Amino acid sequence: MIYALKIIWLLENKLIFAKYEQINTYDELAKISDTMTRLLDESQAPMVHIIDDVSAVEALPKLADVQKNIHYLRHERLGWYVTTLELPPLIKMISNIVTRMMNVRYCGFLSPEDALRFLKRVDPTLRDVDILIKQYDVKIAHLEQFDADALS
Question: Could you tell me the CATH number of the domain that includes residue 57?
Answer without folding.
Answer: 3.30.750.24
